[in-house]
């Protein structure tokens, strides 16, 4: 299966990766500041007291961003956990329709989640909600990242559903699920 919006999914993955790199950089910098303070204390010099205010708050928002922005990319590359013990034993003609049903349920749930996240971000923007930590981060910012990640997942699910329906309608006997080891068609 070739996904037409692979570039969007890849951009989400790059966003997720940049969130993870930023988390690593913030934590490494915070640890470095603490090590410097500890070394200064050992040699009798007063601490500098350097620290990044709200690093745990920022890191938690970045972790959620990394998780949600990577959803579509991991879906199209078959990295989500799937339980196929029973379905894999069915004939292709029946299995393709189980796949269609699962994709419909997943898409419906994802659309509901996306709608809820968009409404939440709109309310946060309207009421000017901010986080309650050390930093007053406007909550619409991380909520928009969540909605974007789920929106990309909805697009990937819809695209997979259309492709699976085409196979189900044209030649259901040719249906086979791609696995992580069998993704030669993927970009």
UniProtKB/TrEMBL annotation:
Residue ranges occupied by any Tripartite ATP-independent periplasmic transporters DctQ component domain in the UniProt entry: 26-165
Source superkingdom: Bacteria
Chain segments annotated as transmembrane: 12-33, 58-76, 96-118, 138-162
InterPro entries, alphabetized: DctQ (IPR055348), TRAP_DctQ (IPR007387)
UniProt keyword terms in alphabetical order: Cell inner membrane, Cell membrane, Membrane, Transmembrane, Transmembrane helix, Transport
Localization terms from the record: Cell inner membrane
Membrane topology: Multi-pass membrane protein
Similarity section: Belongs to the TRAP transporter small permease family.
Assembly and interaction partners: The complex comprises the extracytoplasmic solute receptor protein and the two transmembrane proteins.
Role according to the record: Part of the tripartite ATP-independent periplasmic (TRAP) transport system.
Protein name: TRAP transporter small permease protein
């Amino acid at each position: 299966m070739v996904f037409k919006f692979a570039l969007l999914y890849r951009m989400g993955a790059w966003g997720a990766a940049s969130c993870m790199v930023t988390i690593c950089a913030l934590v490494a910098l915070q640890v470095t500041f603490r090590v410097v303070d500890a070394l200064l204390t050992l040699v009798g010099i007063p601490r500098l007291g350097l620290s990044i205010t709200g690093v745990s708050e920022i890191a938690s928002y970045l972790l959620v961003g990394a998780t949600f922005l990577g959803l579509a990319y991991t879906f199209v590359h078959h990295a989500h956990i799937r339980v196929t013990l029973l379905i894999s034993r069915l004939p292709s003609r029946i299995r393709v329709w189980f796949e269609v049903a699962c994709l419909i349920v997943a898409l419906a749930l994802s659309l509901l989640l996306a709608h809820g996240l968009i409404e939440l971000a709109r309310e946060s923007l309207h009421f000017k909600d901010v986080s309650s930590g050390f930093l007053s981060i406007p909550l619409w910012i991380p909520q928009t990242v969540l909605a974007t990640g789920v929106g990309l997942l909805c697009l990937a699910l819809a695209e997979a559903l259309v492709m699976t329906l085409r196979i189900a309608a044209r030649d259901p006997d040719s249906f086979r699920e791609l696995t992580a080891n069998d993704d030669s068609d993927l970009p």
